[in-house]
Amino acid sequence: MKTNHILEFLNQANHEKGLKEMFTIAFKQTLKVLKKEECYRISLTLVSKEEIHELNKQYRDTDRPTDVLTFAFQEADVLMMDEVIDLGNIIISPEVAKEQCGQYHHPYRREMAFLFIHGLLHAFGYEHHRSTKEAEEMFALQNEILNTMPYDFYTNINKVKKLLTSAQEKSLSGYSHFRVGAIVMTKDGKYHQGFNIENSAYGDCMCAERVALFHTYASGYNKEDIVSLSLITDSENVGTPCGSCRQVMSELMNMNCPVHIFNCDLSKQLDTSVADLLPYAFSKEDLK
Question: How many Cβ atoms are within 10 Å of 63's Cβ, its own excluded?
């Protein structure tokens, strides 16, 4: 089966593991937003602050370190004869990225994804130096790609596991004896708890996912504030949300929002998204 993305990754800076998966997701999401259907290859290298300083001085005539450099093959007037279109090389300094995290008040991995997407857009010919209009177009694309990535930059899974167990213990499930706990995380770093509440009139029961979401909205938040939803059940397998909860999630959360689901002893984990849980969701747009 033909793939439309090839990421060649070299971590010379020896920074944390697991970054390649994140960059691959960012690459795929960039191609999706740009509606690129051809096969593409990009090379990505992580280097030290000193090395990117030298490269910036040598190739950009700027005597200081930078965060990201793009060497696009279009700039070199390379003739593409292969079935795979080689976009060129992106170079990122994780050290500079970490320094910038404090300035922009967001997680390190989000900054790294942002820099990679920025470099990718340069490789596709987008610019932000030539005119205000071009800059606005490029920055709008950056934000769209970053904000729709099916990747969780914020949730502390270890903390969520503890909070989920605590929420599950509060479950009012005297009829099914099936305890469910849920946690919604918002961008301000707060975690909003929910658990299933049962009633002898079964139609009046409420699932943990909806309790957590309604709790979040009642606290003044909206879908743009929600980072993730996590869930634990009494099942030895990973138990996914019911159809009603999936529908509510599709309206109260962004479709790309991550969902983390755990089994009873936290030994099994499913990382998915609202869109994957409810493809072809019915929305208010369908009522028009």
Answer: 9
Where does 35-82 show beta strands of DSSP type E? 39-46, 68-72
The angle at the Cα of 235, spanning 234 to 241, to the nearest 5 degrees, equals 90
Instruction: Please name which of 147, 173, 177 lies closest in space to residue 254, comparing C-alpha atoms.
Output: 147
pLDDT at 75: 45
Q: Which pair of tokens denotes residue 41?
A: 């290859």
Higher pLDDT, 283 or 243: 243
Residues 6+ apart with CB under 8 A from 94: 13, 15, 46, 112
Q: How far is CA 281 from CA 196, 247, 249, 278, 286, in A?
A: 24, 7, 10, 6, 9
CB atoms within 10 A of CB 224: 10
226 and 183 Cβ atoms separated by less than 8 Å: no
pLDDT at 105: 75
Averaged pLDDT score across all residues of the chain: 91
Within 10 angstroms of residue 279's Cβ, the number of other Cβ atoms is 8
In whole angstroms, give the CA distance from residue 288 to residue 284: 7
Q: Token pair for residue 112?
A: 């790294």
In 3-state terms, what secondary structure has residue 130?
coil
Tokens (6 digits) for 38: 């051809």
Query: pLDDT category, 3, cuts 50, 70, 90?
Result: low
Q: Is 30 helix (H, G, I), strand (E, B) or coil?
A: helix
Closest CA to 253 of 288, 277, 269: 277
Mean pLDDT for 126-141 is: 93
Q: Taking a C-beta distance cutoff of 8 angstroms, is the pair 208, 231 a contact?
A: yes
